[in-house]
Each structure stands twice: as C-alpha cells, then as structure tokens.
Amino acid sequence: QVQLVESGGGLVQAGGSLRLSCVASGIIFNEYIMGWYRQTPGLQRELVAEVASDGFANYADAVKGRSTISRDNAKNTVLLQMNSLKPEDTAVYFCRAEKPGVENHWGQGTQVTVFS
Question: How many CA atoms lie within 13 A of 35 on its CB side?
C-alpha cells in the first residue's frame, strides 16, 4: 500500500518560513519524480516544485527563488523549504509521487496559512 505522509504545515506570518516534509512508503522511491503541489478553494491544483531522482528540480515561477525542494532517497523523503512566505502562498499543499506514464500517488495534504 502506497502512503505519502505530509507534515510541516501551519500558520505563519508573511515573510516567515516553513519546511514541509513528505515521507513515502510502499514505492521504490528513486523510481519516482517527487513533487509538491498546492490548491486553494475553487482553483485547480498547481505545481509548486518537483525533483527527479537525480536531484534535478523544477519550480513554479511563483515560488522560484523563495523555495527549495530536496529529496533523500535513502530516507524516502522529500522536503520543501519555503522562505519569504506571502499571503498568496496560503493553500493546502500536497505531496505527489509520479512515475511518468505509469502511475502517480498523492498525499492527504497539509494546510499552509500565511497571514499579513
């Protein structure tokens, strides 16, 4: 059974930082692209950042320069460090494990709320 368990969300003042963590089980971790997505009510889920097994990362323009995604293949963990947070970063953040063209899995989400 595949599980992606997110943690690290919370309430933070604008300009602050948060680190989100996702621990995966039930998959061969280094076969998957790991990503963070976010969703606000009424809007589509959107990519925040993703990282391939070799460490190559891709970021949404909205977070580029303020966020860093990293993975530890030995610990089946992907992290998202977010700095200089803005109220518009408020969303539910989801972890995703993707094997392109084959399958993908989602975590349950963790709420991030940024207040000014």
Answer: 21
Looking at residue 9, its pLDDT comes to 96
Helix (H, G, I), strand (E, B) or coil at 89: helix
Confidence of residue 48 (pLDDT cuts 50, 70, 90): very high
Distances in whole angstroms, Cα of residue 94 to Cα of each of 104, 116:
12, 23
How far apart CA 74 and CA 52 sit, in angstroms, is 14
51 touches 67 (CB < 8 A): no
115 pLDDT tier (thresholds 50, 70, 90): very high
Q: Distance between CA atoms of 14 and 51, rounded to whole angstroms?
A: 26
Residues linked to residue 98 through DSSP beta bridges, in sequence order: 33, 104
